[in-house]
């Protein structure tokens, strides 16, 4: 296996100079008086919505309007696995490519339209406008394919490389958007930012999943079978269908992510908390390992940080794996030939294979002192954090979220500070119909319940 559970957000530190703002606290997060500035401060902070933010790409307004007026197809995981189990035949590979092509331009156009609907001064911020231009660029690379049918191997290879570039282009979206919205915080309220990001980042999860699924299927198809070249963990592993592992063991992912987070703790605090996995660690279910890695890394960071910062209690973090009882027999999903009619658009999220797919609940219990009642209502807001590097051993430098982003490339190798961990983890969990609940026993510790709905049974 090639790096099966490599933590997703192990990003290379970037040496971008940080613009220093004063340290953010719970109170200052909601304060409107701030020294934040943007390169667009010369512009009047108008609330007017503009249809044409600055752009460098060559997609016409008519094309964007045309695509963004189209409904997004309702998408289910059955669609993602309907091309069959790997290795895919050449015909099934073309079918996957054409299906991917039918979805992505509309999804990108919807995102472009949502960015255009932000106040002009916000989308003019260099970071937000970088993301806007990334979407325009990606759409411009897909449009030449729009009226084509992929039916030969050269075209399929070219198309897959366009997808690989798309995934790469949008790799750093989260830290860049986080930076942009921090710089714009005097022009847009935290509530508006959370509303925008919640929709945008959920849509991004689906778009990446669609593109990554075809890339993974490409490498595990008959014409291109090459395990060593695959960007996905192990195409030769029979439990994988593209990026979905039909026999994922959450306890393995917990241990791998906890080891990674413990290393960050050792580096940042000079100590690593202990953890115990109990319940039914042998449980396996069908899920997307990359998503589970993201969620568990963020939840474990929170639990580990709280445990270390609670000077008096160094009890181990207990992670309990509780499989749901087997269902009373929902129909198993068969890999039927592709259906032409995808149905009407219902939501951004991808529907699970079946509503009764057995799930797993993972409880992460720490003795880190809990969450203060005045903090609790804010923890689901993007950008809300109680982290300050001043609290780190040896003192800090007054650093804030902007320097966390600049120093770590988005918080991947930082223990906290971006304030995206809980809301984004919840977005991932809800994507397939799961969820996250936080129970704080203030003065004692926190229980986080991560409920994951399996993506369904696949025969
Ligand atoms: N297990 C926990 N124990 C105590 N506080 C927590 C825990 N989980 C989350 N929090 C609180 O919620 C806030 C937001 O968490 P999160 O969204 O992960 O952002 P960040 O970790 O970057 O601050 C944290 O700053 C912290 O105050
Ligand atoms: Mg966190």
TrEMBL record:
UniProt keywords, alphabetically: ATP-binding, Kinase, Mitochondrion, Nucleotide-binding, Phosphoprotein, Transferase, Transit peptide
Biological process per Gene Ontology, one example term: regulation of glucose metabolic process
Broad EC category: transferase
InterPro entries the UniProt entry points to: AK/P_DHK_N_sf, BCDHK/PDK_N, BCKD/PDK, HATPase_C_sf, HATPase_dom, His_kinase_dom, Sig_transdc_His_kin-like_C
Bias-annotated ranges (Low complexity): 24-41
UniProt keyword Mitochondrion, yes or no: yes
A GO CC term attached to the entry: mitochondrial matrix
Domain Histidine kinase as annotated: residue spans: 289-456
Protein location: Mitochondrion matrix
Residue runs in coiled coils: none
EC id: 2.7.11.-
Family: Belongs to the PDK/BCKDK protein kinase family.
Protein name: Protein-serine/threonine kinase
Organism: Neoarthrinium moseri
């Amino acid at each position: 296996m090639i790096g099966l559970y490599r933590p997703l957000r192990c990003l290379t530190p970037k040496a971008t100079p940080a613009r220093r703002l004063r340290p953010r606290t719970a109170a200052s997060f909601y304060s409107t008086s701030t020294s934040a500035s943007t390169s667009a401060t010369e512009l009047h902070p108008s609330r007017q919505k503009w249809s044409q933010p600055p752009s460098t790409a060559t997609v016409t307004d008519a094309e964007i309007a045309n695509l963004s007026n189209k409904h997004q197809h309702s998408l289910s995981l059955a669609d993602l696995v309907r091309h069959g189990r790997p290795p895919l035949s050449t015909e099934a590979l073309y079918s996957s490519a054409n299906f991917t092509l039918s979805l992505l331009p509309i999804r990108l156009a919807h995102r472009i339209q949502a960015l255009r609907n932000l106040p002009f001064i916000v989308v003019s911020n260099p970071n937000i406008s970088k993301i806007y231009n990334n979407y325009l660029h990606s759409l411009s690379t897909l449009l030449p394919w729009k009226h084509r049918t992929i039916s030969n191997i050269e075209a399929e290879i070219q198309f897959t490389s366009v997808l690989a570039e798309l995934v790469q282009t949008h790799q750093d979206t989260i830290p860049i958007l986080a930076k942009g919205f921090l710089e714009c915080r005097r022009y847009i309220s935290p509530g508006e930012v959370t509303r925008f990001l919640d929709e945008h980042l959920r849509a991004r999860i689906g778009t990446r999943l669609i593109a990554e699924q075809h890339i993974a299927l490409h490498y595990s198809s008959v014409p291109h079978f090459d395990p060593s070249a695959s960007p996905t963990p192990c195409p030769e592993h029979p439990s994988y269908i593209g990026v979905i592992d039909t026999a994922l063991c959450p306890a393995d992912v917990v241990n791998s992510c906890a080891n990674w987070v413990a290393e960050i703790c050792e580096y940042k605090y000079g100590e690593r908390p202990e953890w115990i996995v109990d319940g039914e660690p042998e449980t396996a279910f069908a899920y997307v390992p990359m998503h589970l890695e993201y969620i568990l890394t963020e939840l474990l960071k929170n639990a580990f940080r709280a445990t270390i910062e609670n000077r008096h209690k160094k009890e181990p973090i207990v992670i309990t794996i509780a499989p749901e009882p087997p269902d009373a027999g929902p129909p198993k999903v068969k890999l039927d030939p592709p259906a032409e009619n995808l149905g009407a658009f219902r939501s951004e999220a991808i529907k699970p294979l079946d509503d009764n797919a057995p799930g797993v609940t993972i409880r992460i219990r720490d003795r880190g002192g809990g969450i203060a009642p005045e903090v609790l209502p804010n923890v689901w807001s993007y950008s809300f954090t109680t982290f300050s590097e001043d609290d780190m051993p040896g003192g800090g430098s007054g650093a804030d979220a902007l320097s966390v982003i600049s120093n770590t490339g988005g918080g991947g190798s930082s223990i906290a500070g971006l304030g995206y961990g809980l809301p984004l983890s919840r977005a991932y969990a809800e994507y397939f119909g799961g969820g996250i609940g936080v129970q704080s026993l203030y003065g004692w510790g926190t229980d986080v319940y991560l409920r994951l709905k399996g993506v369904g049974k696949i025969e």
